[in-house]
Amino acid sequence: MRLLHTADWHLGKVLKGIDRTPEIGEALKDLLEIVRKERVDLVVVAGDLFDRPQVSAEAEALAVEFFLRLKELHVPALVIAGNHDPKERLEALSPLLALAGAAVRGRLLLREEGGVVEVQGVRAALLPFVSERVLVKRLWQEAEERHRTYAEAMRRVLANLESPLMLAHFALEGVRPGGGEFFFHLAGSYAVPPSVLPLGARYLALGHIHRQGQVSEAPLAWYAGSLVQLDFGEGEEAKRGALLVELPPNGPPRVHPIPGRWGKPLRTFRLKKEELDGRFSELERFPGYLRVVVEGRLSPAEKERFYRALPHLLALEALGEPREEVGGEAPELGLVEAYGRYLEERNRKEEALLARFGEVLREVEREALEVGA
């Protein structure tokens, strides 16, 4: 069997006012061409098709169109929800996507509930992202057992779902991010130790980390990485793209990385104030989106001049000043980021508390969407 492993599309992603959906749509077209040329038998999508609970009609249409085009190529697909995905919406779309040959799981199902399917003669487990509270409550009903950890719960779930092919969306302990991930779903209680991975699996197709790379040899496990570069900062040079995986009847799988050259590149330039004019032509020629961090203060007039001269400049930050964003406006921090900054200002580094705050916030948002639906 030849399968295409992809993940972390993030359709609907908006970066500082720029909708990245058209760039991601072009990447999906290229994936379809790879499926055709490489005679792929199965496509697996390991979570985060979408970037947020509510996305544009264009973003949703691109996802549906991708699976319809796969059906025309007679190639089935397996899909799981990630931490960014609207799980209820994916579940609602699953009957439609099933007509296109895609098996979709938005919520956790154990083996006896349909969490393992057979496709192209291979048993495959589908493990979408599950929050800590939901997972522990799902496995241990009694209140006195609720002290169990996320890692313990994941060990039980992975053992239950153990199959030759496994799709999952979580962060393995010690893995470097690729830029744009929710950090409170990467560390602390959400970091899953590699020791919980089931040795009976031949290949684990992982999503959640935007940096492409192998993270385990036994069992063989890879993150495909995001299709396009999603944010500035750490991971700007990370590998990303998709993976072509050969699963022979016998012997180890063979993984062939497909380097991602999709979407516009993002780059941070760190310059001294006196270097700005001398490096202007380099900034002007950069083919992607820019973030410029300047050592020294800039007047409002100077900032306005650079924003006008460089339409692809999305952030201009002067060290020692309050951080500013596109057009010199104050940054629009999310509640989690704002709470994180509040803790930092008080010299409190409490990742577990921040993670719990973020999870509660997301659950409240999901419930609000359900009420308004």
Model description:
With 373 residues, the chain is α/β, with parallel strands linked by helices. The protein has three domains: 2-259, Purple Acid Phosphatase, chain A, domain 2; 266-328; 335-372, no CATH class. 31% of the residues lie in helices and 23% in strands. The protein is built from nine helices and 19 strands. A six-stranded mixed β-sheet has the order 6-5-4-1-15-16. Helix 1 packs parallel to helix 2 and helix 8 (335-345) runs antiparallel to helix 9. The protein is globular, with a radius of gyration of 21 Å. The chain starts with a strand and ends with a helix. The relative contact order is 0.12. Residues 324-332 and 369-373 have low confidence and may be disordered.
List the helices and strands and how they pair.
Blueprint: E1 2-6, E2 14-15, E3 18-19, H1 21-37, E4 42-46, H2 57-72, E5 77-80, H3 87-99, E6 102-105, E7 116-119, E8 122-127, H4 132-139, H5 150-161, E9 165-169, E10 171-172, E11 191-192, E12 203-207, E13 213-216, E14 220-223, E15 241-246, E16 254-259, E17 266-272, H6 280-285, E18 289-295, H7 300-309, E19 313-319, H8 335-345, H9 351-372
Parallel strand pairs: 1-4, 4-5, 5-6, 8-9, 9-12, 10-11, 12-14, 17-18, 18-19
Antiparallel strand pairs: 1-15, 2-3, 7-8, 13-14, 15-16
Helix pairs in contact: 1-2, 8-9
